[in-house]
């Protein structure tokens, strides 16, 4: 199932739901920028999902989470509780969480594990899954192997992993590395293309991740993305594939043009899934 990050289209939230639904994209993904703490915003999104028969597949909203032993720990947990309540109201069943990216003497690896385990437990009554996304520049969870090990330690059926094709390909991972990841622990695959000249350094990689991710087909790696998807499909993965793109060039493109790019990639996916 192909899903689309709602913030890809440079139009109002209402128009995004309308356009995506009109063209058959009935599963979308939200980020922290798509909704705030205001109850009216949440109720508005809930109304849009109902009006357009759209399902919110995931929310990538809990960032820099875990490991703190001071007052920030309480803030993290309160934020997590609020997000879980919000996602439950939106009937979203997957919360994406990313680890701390700045090394600090106040962050403890064992506390990260404890916080992730607590997060998984908090999510169970809401029937929400937690998907951990490794970030190569995180000193704590910087690889899929580290994320998989944590997933094993958390040992909860609602706790799993996010595979990001941008990280996988920019880190020049061999596709055989996917064999080390248990398929039933993969909850989401995010698909982003990119220009190879942008990933020569860690700083370039971070910049690309935050600002220059492309719709598959707009960069150099569409065939590699499809290979990753085909490999995971053969391994038995049947979860969602989410198109994630945030390059500034999309802010000046026509909505119809972007929709056609999404449709083109969707058609190519049908050959491998």
Structure overview:
With 273 residues, this protein is of the alpha/beta class. It is built from nine helices and eight strands. It has an eight-stranded parallel β-barrel. β1, α1 and β2 (27-31) form a beta-alpha-beta unit.
Shape: globular
Largest sheet: spatial strand order? 1-2-3-4-5-6-7-8
Can you give the helix content as a percent range? 40-55%
Q: How would a textbook summarize the main sheet? A: 8 strands, parallel, barrel
Strand content: 15-25%
The tally of strands reads: 8
Spell the H/E element sequence: EHEHEHEHEHEHEHHEH
- Helix count, DSSP H or I runs of 4 or more residues: 9
Which tags fit this structure?
15% strand, 8-stranded parallel barrel, 273 residues, alpha/beta, globular, 9 helices
How is this structure best summarized?
The protein is an alpha/beta fold and 273 residues long. The protein is 42% helix and 15% strand.
Topology summary:
Layout: E1 2-5, H1 13-22, E2 27-31, H2 39-52, E3 55-62, H3 71-89, E4 94-97, H4 109-123, E5 129-132, H5 144-154, E6 159-164, H6 165-170, E7 186-191, H7 202-211, H8 222-235, E8 240-243, H9 255-269
Helix pairs in contact: 1-2, 3-4
């Amino acid at each position: 199932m192909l899903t689309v990050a709602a913030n890809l289209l440079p139009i109002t939230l209402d128009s995004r739901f309308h356009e995506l639904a009109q063209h058959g994209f009935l599963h979308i993904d939200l980020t922290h920028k798509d909704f705030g703490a205001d109850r009216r915003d949440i109720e508005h999104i809930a109304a849009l999902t109902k009006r357009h028969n759209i399902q919110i597949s995931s929310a990538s909203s809990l960032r820099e989470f875990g490991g703190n032993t001071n007052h920030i720990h309480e803030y993290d947990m309160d934020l997590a509780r609020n997000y879980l309540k919000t996602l439950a109201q939106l009937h979203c069943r997957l919360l994406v969480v990313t680890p701390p990216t700045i090394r600090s003497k106040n962050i403890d690896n064992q506390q990260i594990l404890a916080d992730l385990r607590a997060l998984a437990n908090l999510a169970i009554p809401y029937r929400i899954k937690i998907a951990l996304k490794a970030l190569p520049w995180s000193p704590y969870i910087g690889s899929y192997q580290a994320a998989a090990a944590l997933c094993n330690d958390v040992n909860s059926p609602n706790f799993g992993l996010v595979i990001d094709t941008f990280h996988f390909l920019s880190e020049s991972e061999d596709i055989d590395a996917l064999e080390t990841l248990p398929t039933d622990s993969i909850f989401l695959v995010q698909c982003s293309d990119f220009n190879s000249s942008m990933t020569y350094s860690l700083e370039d990689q971070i910049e690309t991740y935050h600002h220059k991710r492309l719709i598959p087909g707009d960069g150099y790696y569409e065939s590699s993305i499809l290979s990753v998807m085909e490999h995971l499909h053969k391994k038995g993965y049947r979860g969602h594939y989410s198109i994630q793109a945030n390059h500034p060039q999309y802010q000046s493109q026509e909505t119809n043009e972007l929709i056609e790019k999404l449709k083109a990639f969707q058609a190519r996916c049908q050959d491998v899934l």
